[in-house]
Specification:
- This protein has 2 domains: about 210 residues, no CATH class; about 160 residues, Alpha-Beta Plaits (2-Layer Sandwich).
- Strand 10, helix 7 and strand 11 form a beta-alpha-beta unit.
- Helix content is about 45%, strand content about 15%.
- It starts with a helix and ends with a helix.
- By secondary structure, it is an alpha+beta fold.
- The chain has a 5-stranded mixed beta sheet, sandwiched between helices. It has a 4-stranded antiparallel beta sheet with strand order 2-1-6-5, with helices on one face.
- It is built from 8 helices and 11 strands.
C-alpha cells in the first residue's frame, strides 16, 4: 500500500476525531451550565424562604418603616440568587432590588418585574401574615445563571475548540503540501443560539405584580386569594360571598370595562379582592358580608351600572351576576368558584331579564351531613 493512500485515510480519521471533540466539548459545557442553573433554582427557593422569614419577623420594627426596608434590602444583598423583591400589602406595594433599575419597572406607584435573559420567568409568590396588615404577599425574582461560572465554562470550551481548530488547520496544511487528494475538511458550524419563544407566561399574559394593567387583580390569583379569605373567615366564624359577573349583551369597550372594575372596587370591597374574569367579566371576594346583604348589594350595583355605563352598542349593560357564599361551611375555594360560575351561567341563559342575578344558597346542615357521609364511606 502506498503512502499516498494512507494519508487521506489518516486525514479523514483526524477530522472525525476533531468533530467528536468539538461536539463533546459543547455538550459538556451546556451540561455544566444546566446543572449550575438547577442548583441555583434550589438555592433560590431556600433564599426566598429565608427572606419570607425576615419579612415576617422584621415587621416588629414597623411594617414598611425604614428599618424594615433595610432588613429586606440586606437580605437581598446577602443572598446569592435573589435579584428583587416586591412586597404587597393593604397599604400599597414596595420594591427592593440588588441593583437599582435592574429587574423592577415602576408603573405609577406599582412595581413590576422585568423579564430578560438569565432571569427566572416565574417569580416566587407567597402570602405572609403581618400583624395589622391584610393580604400581604411577597414575590421574588432570581437569576438562573451565575455569570462568573458561565464565563469559566465558555473559556474552557473555547480553549478546547481552539485546539481542535489548530489541529484541523495543521492537518489541512500537511495534506496540501504532500499534494494528497482528499475531501477538504470543513469545520462544523455551530448552531445559532435560540431562546424560548411564544411562552404563555411572557409579556402581557404573565401576572406581573399584584394588579393587571386594568388596575385589578390578575385572574390567576383568584383561587389562591379566595382560599386564604375562606380560611380566615372560617377561623373567625364570619361569612363570605363570592361574586362573578358578565354582560349578557354587547361587549364592553376597554374604557367601559375599566370603569366597571373601578365601580366594583368602590361599591363592594378593596382593590386587592377584585379580579379579572376572562376578557369581559369580574370576580369579587367580599368577606364578612352575609348572603342576604350580598344579594341586595348586587341588585343595587346592577342598577347603578345600568344608569352610569354603556356597552359597545351604546345601550345600558345587561349585567348578569352569579353569587355563592361560605354560609357556615368549611368549603374549598374551588367549590365556591364552581357554584358562583354555575349561577352566572344560569343567569346568562335566563330569557326573563327580570332575573339577572342568580344566587347559589346552600344548607349548612345538609352540607355537613353530606361531608360526613363521604368521610364515613372511606
Amino acid at each position: 500500500m502506498s503512502i499516498s493512500g494512507k494519508r487521506p485515510l489518516l486525514t479523514s480519521a483526524l477530522a472525525m476525531v476533531c468533530i467528536i471533540i468539538y461536539a463533546v466539548s459543547l455538550i459538556l459545557g451546556a451540561g455544566r451550565i444546566l446543572v449550575n442553573s438547577n442548583r441555583r433554582g434550589i438555592l433560590a427557593e431556600k433564599e426566598f424562604n429565608d427572606i419570607l422569614d425576615s419579612a415576617s419577623s422584621a415587621a416588629i420594627l414597623g411594617f414598611t418603616s425604614r428599618s424594615y426596608q433595610e432588613v429586606i434590602q440586606d437580605a437581598i444583598m446577602e443572598s446569592e440568587t435573589i435579584l428583587g423583591i416586591i412586597i404587597s400589602g393593604s397599604n400599597g406595594e414596595f420594591g427592593f432590588e440588588r441593583q437599582y433599575g435592574s429587574v423592577i419597572n415602576w408603573v405609577g406607584n406599582s412595581p413590576r418585574f422585568r423579564t430578560g435573559f438569565g432571569i427566572a420567568k416565574n417569580p416566587y409568590f407567597q402570602a405572609i401574615r403581618i400583624e395589622g396588615q391584610r393580604n400581604t404577599t411577597v414575590q421574588a425574582i432570581y437569576s438562573t445563571l451565575d455569570y462568573d461560572f458561565l464565563i469559566r465554562v465558555l473559556r474552557d470550551t473555547l480553549i478546547i475548540i481552539l485546539v481542535v481548530v489548530a489541529l484541523a488547520i495543521i492537518t489541512l496544511v500537511v495534506e496540501n503540501k504532500l499534494k494528497v487528494k482528499s475531501v477538504p475538511f470543513v469545520l462544523p458550524a455551530s448552531e445559532p443560539e435560540t431562546r424560548p419563544q411564544g411562552s404563555p407566561w411572557k409579556e402581557h399574559s404573565y401576572p406581573k405584580g399584584l394588579y393587571s394593567p386594568r388596575g385589578i387583580g390578575w385572574e390567576s390569583y383568584t383561587k389562591e386569594r379566595l382560599e386564604s379569605e375562606l380560611h380566615r373567615c372560617a377561623a373567625s366564624e364570619e361569612d363570605l360571598i363570592f361574586i362573578v359577573m358578565e354582560n349578557r349583551g354587547a361587549k364592553f369597550g376597554e374604557e367601559s370595562y375599566r370603569k366597571l372594575a373601578a365601580e366594583g372596587v368602590n361599591f363592594f370591597t378593596e382593590r386587592d379582592l377584585v379580579f379579572e374574569r376572562g376578557k369581559q367579566g369580574l370576580s369579587l371576594i367580599i368577606p364578612t358580608l352575609s348572603f342576604e346583604k350580598g344579594f341586595m348589594k348586587c341588585e343595587k350595583f346592577r342598577k347603578h351600572i345600568r344608569s352610569t355605563l354603556t356597552d359597545a352598542s351604546g345601550a345600558p349593560p345587561d349585567l348578569c351576576i352569579g353569587l355563592s357564599s361560605r354560609a357556615g361551611r368549611l368549603v374549598e375555594a374551588e367549590r365556591v368558584m364552581l357554584e358562583a360560575s354555575e349561577a352566572l351561567a344560569k343567569a346568562l341563559k335566563e330569557k326573563n331579564p327580570q332575573n339577572p342575578i342568580v344566587a347559589f344558597k346552600s344548607d349548612p346542615k345538609k352540607y355537613r351531613e353530606f361531608i360526613n357521609r363521604i368521610e364515613n364511606s372511606y
